[in-house]
């Protein structure tokens, strides 16, 4: 053990009345909700990058956090892993997630970086054999280093495309070695600033072919996990090829991948795209591509992706309602893609941020589950669309435009608007929150 979190106890469930800040008030891993243990519903994961690689910088200021593993070399990487698994144990989470750049030092060459990755993966494998936490997903960081400044798969330089292929292959191999449940592709630099220097059609075609190659390789090595794309709008590129769920679905359909690839949806990204979190989840479910989520929130007074821990269970309940409606996770989970504030310097801050986030999500899940059990919202929804269950309506859908139009004069149709009852349903929702 690292000793970094020394003196911080393992977090246990003590119930809503507890005044112990180092306790769960709502997250009880063994509580059964809709026939499943809460831990199995939530599938919580700690994000390695924000929890152990983040140094407290923001667009206007540099490092504020000081961790003993903030150094180069494999010794520091292993010290970071020791601290990480210590936190996973304290929280009792079943999963974690990482980028390659989070866990290994950058080498002077790709070969050296890969050797470093392979070494730390074996260290992780040993850790997983002794600890509860397993890998929810791995991915390659193809956005931070200057080589990625013009994209990875969409880069105008074919040598960078080749480097991206080598990076994804190495990290998919690493994820497979660790028994990861998913592999994520986050295209932070897969976009452009101006059409003056961009061949949009070529870049999009290259991105599609790259994803086809990734899927082909997944099958060749026998990786059983899901391949996920994380939709991301605007930041850092002005225009991006994976803007939101709908854009990603169109992309997948275009390249014949809609049955091979799913989405990892982030709260903060949904907001930046002009949507709600629950909208993106519901749409992904309707399209058959829902995979996993990155749980966080934005500061709504800021215009960028602040990646804060969730603290509003009413807001999150809408998202978990859609997840439960979709049947819950299969390979996915609730990954805290969230970071403490740059003024939150202590080890205790990192632990309590996760405790609060896990409690918020658990409270949201229980509210959503109670409403699903009652059936009231679904009954109201079904009643609103009941007309489509009639034989004439079904025949109209199966028939022609002319036949549908003919009903208007033949039956003297003059439809009267019917209330959507939004406020009544909002009141219903609030009773469960």
TrEMBL record:
Keywords: Carbohydrate metabolism, Cytoplasm, Isomerase, Magnesium, Metal-binding, Xylose metabolism. One of its GO terms (molecular function) is xylose isomerase activity. Its main location: cytoplasm. It comes from Tabrizicola oligotrophica. Mg(2+) 2 binds at residues 266, 269, 305, 307. This is Xylose isomerase. One of its GO terms (biological process) is D-xylose metabolic process. Its EC number is 5.3.1.5. It is an enzyme of class 5 (isomerase). The active site is at 99, 102.
